[in-house]
Amino acid sequence: MAKKPKPSASEPTVIANAAQARKWAAARGVTEIECLVPDLAGVARGKIMPSAKFFDDTAMALPSSIFMQTISGEYPEETAEFRFDPSDGDIELLPDFATLCLVPWARDPTAQIIHDAVYHDGRAVEIAPRQVLKRVIALYHEQGWIPVVAPEIEFYLVKRNTDPDYPLEPPIGRSGRPEAGRRSYSISAVNEFDALFEDIYAFAEAQQLEVDTLIHEEGAAQMEINLRHGDPLALSDQVFLLKRTIREAALAHDIYATFMAKPIAHEPGSAMHIHQSILSKETGKNIFTDDAGRPTPEFFHYIAGQQRYTPSVTCMLAPYVNSYRRLVRGLSAPVNVQWGYDNRTTGLRIPPSSPENRRVENRVPSSDANPYLAMAASLACGYLGLTRHLTPSEPETGMAASEEFDLPVGLLEAVGLFEQTEELAEVFGRTFLTTFAAVKRAEFATFMRVISPWEREFLLLNV
């Protein structure tokens, strides 16, 4: 099991530059560096190089097309709005030394570091997910605000499955039997995979990922890991690394971990709930609460922004065809943008808290979402509500899950809403909107080339 290296007394808590990073790597005998950049899907792209070569010259390049690739590895067709550069010129990757950490499952001492993407003239690549989130955070800072988030990530453990035509099944635990039935919050169900979770915790500690709690969710072998609250960029980095960590730990135990939104037909879907609050840069206090402990107008403006714009950013929160299998009426996932106090049937929930910790929980995002883009989308909705002084509906006190859909019911509808909402172009930039929409349409076209079992079952001999 991996152990977290103990830094020396003189070692900085946060690594700020190449010199500190070189010293950190040397102290741990690091021989290789994995240079990572998250693409539109949240997949780790990049290069692996010897540690000495990395520190001799940290500059490196990748084709600009890495941010235009679909999840199946294809590229969108050109349209009047979307243009693909035929030269596929290089972009540069710049390391964020604060993200440097070990790869605890590697056989040889290996480190990883997340990079930002820039053009040769130093401009940030506007369609890179990390930059999209940075752009939204900067808008908050311009207003004197500091956004704070805390994500909750659900996932399934499943048997190894090498044939995509076969449905996924729960894995065999230490009892020798697969899980059956609903075992929400069951300790014994988590204990079935104790060895795996011990590795996940050890790997997370070695990477300084601040895992808060682990619980068993509703589905068979469905789990949830919560992270502590903090800066949206830092938390997105942590989710990006944690998803990779959980997959690697599961593979070592001969099972899969999947963040698909709806991996098993008759089980609940997997979400990535995002808790959000906003601090004043001047006072450090939560702007959702006044000096008397009451909710402020800003609190309600923020909720109203989430209500108005969440349908328009749903394709960032639920980015695949499979995502919409989770967003169906009658299950635990939301289908609306109603809000309520401690009401889990609404898309927007206000959890019980002290006044200083007052926050909004967005329950719409699915666990398959790119964490950078999901954070950016949710914060963008709140920002638009704050700056436009929007007014929310009355809080929902009853059952909201059975009400009419407020959210788009499919990927193409979601992409259409996304493109048509001009306010989003102001927040994210038009280039990102057109690129992301083109990629999602290309992914849908790929999906439509596959004939499903349902079609063979009901159409083969009946039509």
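the 2nd protein, sequnce then structure:
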Amino acid sequence: MKVGVLSLQGAFREHREVLDALGVEPVEVRVPEQLSGTDALVLPGGESTTMSKLLETSGLFDPVADLVAQGMPVLGTCAGMILLATEVLDGRPDQRRFGAIDVSVRRNAYGRQVDSFEAELDVAGLDGGPFPGVFIRAPVVDHAGDEVEVLAAHDGKPVLARQGAVWVSSFHPELSGDLRLHQWFLRESAER
């Protein structure tokens, strides 16, 4: 399996290292040609407005949007969640998003960098006990549509969800030291 990792800004290296550890071929994606032959895509955490602009200037926005619309499995963490959401409640007016999962999100809703925290999350369908969620300037899901399956919540708000082949998390599973979420995503992606 070949998995593209959007590598314009943010925590792409950490996702690549997790994929390496799982025996998957990661491809750092910086230009449209690097999407060729990928079976799935990871949109990492970072700064969502910067990532949106870089997707435009690199020529990647439309090719990624096309692949997502065609059903390519995609995992978006933190800023990646914001990019995949249908609505960003406090985003910039010029910030583009893919609208791939029916959620409304609020950027940096858990606070500033100094407010970062870890929380044990009970994830529906994930064996092996709680998952260590690492929250860094994380978004909050204010609303999830009827077709969205919420897999984990923190303080009553969804923090891990999926809709079809699109998975999103408010937290950073790539920083947790726990490979289970990536394994699950990859297993389901391979079955598509």
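The mean pLDDT is 93. Helices lie at 12-21, 48-57, 61-69, 79-84, 180-191.
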